[in-house]
Design brief:
Layout: E1 11-13, E2 18-20, E3 55-56, H1 66-72, H2 82-99, E4 105-110, H3 113-124, E5 130-135, H4 138-149, E6 153-158, H5 167-177, E7 181-185, E8 187-188, E9 193-194, H6 200-206, E10 210-214, H7 226-229, E11 233-235, E12 248-253, H8 255-262, H9 275-282, H10 294-310, H11 312-332, E13 348-352, H12 359-370, E14 372-373, E15 375-376, E16 385-389, H13 397-412
Parallel strand pairs: 3-14, 5-6, 5-7, 7-10, 10-11
Antiparallel strand pairs: 1-2, 4-12, 8-9, 11-12, 13-16, 15-16
Helix pairs in contact: 1-10, 2-10, 11-13
Length: 418
């Protein structure tokens, strides 16, 4: 370069000891000699993934709607992209519609329904709080377990699996124990019981405790009126009545629960599920908390859009009608439902296994020979019941007819006979 020519500005780059703006050297053609050879001990040679086309009629997940699956396959955008922020707001508003609530803090947790369950407890329990858990199945046991891990003094009331609590039982327990939180399950997935909610919220206000409700197997399929019922905290999942794959856990917190959370003197003892932090991301500030599962949010948004197009009343009626069709068909086959009809969930039916039949062997036959999944019993009901889920995109007459035909054929052949 001559002194008379204008020279470009260059700076030294200490990382490479060459000038920025100078031509790149030839790229390396191979890695430098490795001092430790790469182990292939865990290396697999696999073909593209292939999964069967199963009809999922168990306790969950249910089959996702095809439109939802198409949304999941769309190209991701950034989790702070203005378009994604707009989508977040749509999801929040539609969740309020499905739950029939005006709660400000209504969001999908990045995790399954169990994450949303834990979020309700982690954010509101202060060590030493008394938490009353109304246990009528497996998931009441889980509420009690989670609450104890956050330092709560857990007390329980129990009713036999397959039954629901009376209002008198709830009031007696509240008066006796004076808890800070009453936790209960609206739709008990392990038994198929739907808990009547009339009057329970009023009792919780009378005894100055929060009402926490599990709506995992009812959201989007069974009537829910959170504000009318005076529910302070609720959670659900994406993979049942909403017709979306598992991966997001709808969560909502009312003003009374929010006040308790904001009044605590310590930090919420779970960083990932801390709603005081998540509120800054899902609220107007849009402060980064974690990388949101963008494509799962696409799917949930579409699932909720489809529900809103159908309308809640029509969705609830569709599930009730197809459940009634299932119950009538089971009766014709000589199969007995475990739960009395007045407490029976339209989304999940528990069927008594006939004497002499191996519940698990029968279930596996349906899966392997007919590509139909049903569930078996949990806990004290293991081996005693089958659990049949007619939810979301599977709650249609033709799906019920297909299952009933397979059940009739399999029973006639003596499948699962011991």
């Amino acid at each position: 370069m001559s002194f008379g020519a204008s020279a470009p500005h260059v700076t030294s780059n200490p990382a490479t000891h060459r000038c920025v703006g100078s031509p790149d050297p030839d790229p390396p053609q191979a890695l430098a000699t490795l001092t430790t050879p790469v182990s292939d001990r865990h290396r697999l040679s696999l073909g593209p993934i292939a999964t069967p086309d199963r009809l999922l009629l168990g306790p969950g997940p249910s089959n996702a709607h095809p439109t939802v699956l198409q949304a999941l396959a769309r190209t991701p955008i950034g989790h702070l992209d203005p378009l994604y922020v707009e989508l977040m707001g749509e999801v929040q508003e539609l969740l309020r519609y499905v739950w029939q609530t005006d709660n400000r803090l209504t969001i999908p947790m990045s995790g399954t329904g169990s994450a949303a369950m834990e979020a309700t407890l982690a954010n509101t329990i202060v060590p030493g709080d008394k938490v009353l858990v109304a246990q009528k199945g497996y998931f009441g046991l889980r509420q009690a377990d989670m609450a104890s891990r956050y330092g709560a003094k857990v007390v329980t009331i129990d009713c036999p699996w397959g039954e629901a609590f009376s209002l008198d039982q709830i009031e007696h327990a509240l008066a006796t124990h004076r808890p800070a939180i009453l936790a209960m399950v609206h739709a008990e997935t392990s038994t198929g019981v739907c808990q009547p909610m009339d009057g329970i919220g009023d009792l919780c206000r009378q005894y100055d405790c929060l009402l926490l409700l599990d709506t995992v197997t009812s959201l989007g399929a069974v009537p829910l009126y959170l504000d009318e019922w005076k529910v302070d905290l609720a959670y659900s999942c994406s993979q049942k009545g909403l017709s979306c794959p598992p991966g997001l856990g709808p969560f909502t917190m009312g003003p009374r629960a929010e006040a308790k959370m904001m009044g605590r003197q310590d930090k919420v003892p779970n960083w990932y599920l801390d709603v005081t932090l998540l509120n800054q991301y899902w609220g107007s500030d849009r402060v980064y908390h974690h990388t949101a599962p963008v494509n799962m949010t696409y799917g949930l948004r579409e699932a909720l859009r489809l529900l809103a197009e159908e309308g809640l009343e029509a969705r609830w009626q569709r599930h009730q009608s197809n459940a009634a069709k299932l119950w009538a068909g089971l009766d014709e086959l000589g199969l007995e439902c475990m739960v009395p009809v007045e407490f029976r969930l339209p989304t999940l039916t528990s069927v008594k296994v006939p004497d002499g039949i191996d519940a698990k062997a029968f279930q596996l036959h349906l899966l392997r020979e007919h590509n139909i999944e049903i569930g078996v019993g949990l806990g004290v009901l293991a081996g005693k019941i089958w659990r049949i889920g007619i939810m979301g995109a599977n709650s249609y007459a033709e799906k019920v007819d297909r299952l009933l035909a397979v059940l009739a054929e399999s029973l006639a052949k003596g499948v699962g006979r011991k």
